Amino acid sequence: MTGPHALKPFLLAFPGPLRDRLVAAVLSGEKTATTGLLVEYEIEKEELPEAGERSALIDSDGREVAVVEITEVRVLPLGEADLRLALDEGEGFLSVADWREAHERFWHGEEMREALGDPGFVVDDGTMLVVERFRVVETLSPDVS
């Protein structure tokens, strides 16, 4: 490995309390999947990640805290999200309905709508998602200045 600084950032949510909770869930091993919107990749002209790709997990302070390896990437419509995904997201969801409610709240939030450049953005059963499954391969010591 050439060092964590050579890795693409692995960003969960936006900096703040939600990202802090998600990063902690990854580090504890509770969170082994994450779900994003395909439209985010299209807007940013970013290629989808591939299995085997490694990235640096970034905390709310912009520090690299772990190296994660993608184990699976799937594109599917929101209506096909299942209980396994809800559980693997590691946020305590016990049903697909709870998972969906929390994700819709995030995707319909002001920060996401601003990031997408669409103040009226809404998801429905046909909205395409990118589901990434991953594992932590290394925990990094945060740089303390």
Automatic annotation (TrEMBL):
Top-level lineage group: Bacteria
Domain ASCH stretches: 12-138
Protein source organism: Streptomyces exfoliatus
CDD domains according to UniProt: ASCH_Ef3133_like
Chain coiled-coil ranges: none
Protein's name according to its UniProt entry: ASCH domain-containing protein
